[in-house]
Amino acid sequence: MSMVRMDADGPLDGQVAVVTGAGRGIGAAIALELSNLGAIAVLCGRTRDVLESSAQAIAQARGRAEVVICDVTSLQSVEAAAKQVVASFGRVDILVNNAGVGGFGGPLHQLPPEAWEQILNTNLRGVYYTTRAFAPMMIRARAGHIINISSLAGKNALPNGAAYAASKWGLNGLSYSMAEELRGHNIRVAVVCPGSTNTDLSPHAGKDPAKMLQPEDVAHAVAMLVTQSPQSFVSEILLRPTQKP
Predict the structure, then answer these.
(1) CA pseudo-torsion sign 32, 208, 151, 161
(2) At 135, which helix (H) or strand (E)?
(3) Is residue 164 annotated as a catalytic residue, yes or no?
(4) Which SS3 state, helix, strand or coil, does residue 178 take?
(5) What is the pTM of this model?
(6) Can you say whether residue 65 is alpha, beta or left, with left for phi > 0 and alpha for psi between -120 and 50 degrees?
(7) What's the burial of 115, exposed, middle or buried (CB within 10 Å: 0-12/13-18/19+)?
(8) Is residue 234 part of a domain?
(9) Does residue 245 belong to any structural domain of this protein?
(10) 244 domain-assigned
């Protein structure tokens, strides 16, 4: 575990934000945005080097970050990460479930079983694990945000990406149900469903990257969710680029 701390203030000052898959792309952008708002960003992922790079970007922006190695497909790893957060801060205010893998290699009947397992374990089971590990802290505090990064593929058919779509449809249903379970504890659960986003998660053949959503666009949506007025909550955001790429 390594930490970078700088002076910062903002609407999230003093809050702790755990972001999975925070080493690059959407996760790194979300972590940076939350740190810009004053939160301490806990960067979770499997690869220390990319997490350290993300932490340094936050440090250069005078934010605060802590790196925690975590594989969301392993309950033991997730529980160890939660213990580290408790030891360091004793609280978690925001959990962003962003870690995910793509899968766009062909029709479902040709998908290898190990690819199915990787996609579903990361994109869906991993959210169950992190919620199981971190939600009790929020319940005790009677406050918190859980934001699950899904996809418009969780709303629409996705030929040649059926397993990925299934994971995101499942994640949406999980999120809506979690929201009902936790709203009585003053915990708001939301799902963000971006369209095609310019990251290295998946190829976007024939699309103009400049017209696609950027990681910062998704981060802005997350910032909106965690700074909304306290008497209501936005349960779902469907995010599309202004121009079709």
Answers:
(1) negative
(2) helix 126-141
(3) yes
(4) helix
(5) 0.94
(6) beta
(7) middle
(8) yes
(9) no
(10) no
Strands (E), 32-123: 40-45, 64-69, 94-97
C-alpha triplet 191, 68, 51: angle, nearest 5°: 80
| pLDDT tens-digit series, residues 134-188 | 999 999 999 999 999 999 999 999 999 999 999 999 999 999 999 999 999 999 9
Report the alpha-carbon distance of residue 134 to residue 119 in Å, rounded. 22
Nearest CA to 38 among 5, 61, 15? 15
The token duo for 163 is 């397993």
Range of the domain at 24: 2-239
For the CA atoms of the chain, what is the radius of gyration?
A: 17
Residue 48's closest CA among 33, 30, 69?
A: 69
Say how far apart CA 36 and CA 96 lie, in whole Å.
16
Nearest residue to 128 (alpha-carbon basis) of 192, 173, 188, 65: 173
Query: Residue holding tokens 């469907």?
Result: 238
Task: Name the domain count of the chain.
Answer: 1
9: tokens are: 């203030």
Choose, from 128, 129, 164, 176, the residue flagged as catalytic: 164
